[in-house]
Known about the structure:
Largest sheet: 2 strands, antiparallel
Helix content: over 70%
Strand content: under 5%
Number of strands: 2
Order of helices and strands: HEEHHHHHHH
Strand order of the largest sheet: 1-2
Structural class: mainly alpha
Shape: globular
Number of helices: 8
Distance between the termini: 90 Å
Amino acid sequence: MKLFSTIIVSSCLATQAFGVTPVVSKGLSKPALVTHKSPLRQKNVADVSPLFRDPTITRGGAIPGLQAYSDALDKKPITMKALTSLVGWFLGDLLAQLFIAGGPVDYKRLATLSFFGFIYHGPSGHYFYNWLDKQVPGTDAIPVFSKVAIDQIIWCPIFMSVFFTYLGLVNGDSLSTIGAKIKNDLFTACQGSWKVWPIVHLINFKFVSNKWRIPYINAVQIAFNMFLSLLGTKK
Length: 235
C-alpha cells in the first residue's frame, strides 16, 4: 500500500512539473489529465519571445538597425557609403595585420587605409556606379557583362593607380617613387582583381540595386582589402 501511495504522489508531482494537472473523476474511472498550456506550447510564442521579431513594430525587422541604415542611404548616400567603406577597409587591413602578417597592429597603416575607404572608395564608387547604371541600363546578359567589362578594364586600373598614389603621398614618397610603384604593382593588383571581382560583379549588376552596391561590395571587399593592404604596403 505504501508503494502504491508513493507511485501516486510521484505521478502527481511529475504531471504538475510538465504543466498538466491530474483530475480524478467520480466513481471507479481512471484519472483524466487536463492540460494547461506551458509557455513553450503557446501558439503565440513568437509574439512574446525576443527571438522572433515583428517587422511592423521592430525597427529594421529581423535585423535591428537595417531600416535605419537603409533610410540613411536614401537621405545621405555619399556620407553613408563613405562610412561603410571606412568600416570595410578598417576590417580588411586589421584582419590582414592580425592573421596574415601576424601582428603587431600598425595603427598608422590601419588609419591610412581606413581613411582611403572613407575619402575615396565610398564616394568614388557612388558616382561611378551611378554613372555606369545610367550609361548601361538593364539587368539582361549584355548590359551586365558590359558593366563588368567596363568596371574591370577601365575602372580597376584607375582605382588601383589612385590607391598607390594615395599611399605614396601619405608616406612622403616622391612622384618618381610613386610612378615606379604603379609600374611594378599595377598589373599584379589588376590580376588579383580579375580573379575575384568579375563573378562578384555579375551578381552585383544582375541582382543588387544601385543603392546597395557599395554595401554589397564592401561586404565582399573585406577579404580583397586584405590582399590590397599587403600589396600596397609592400616595400
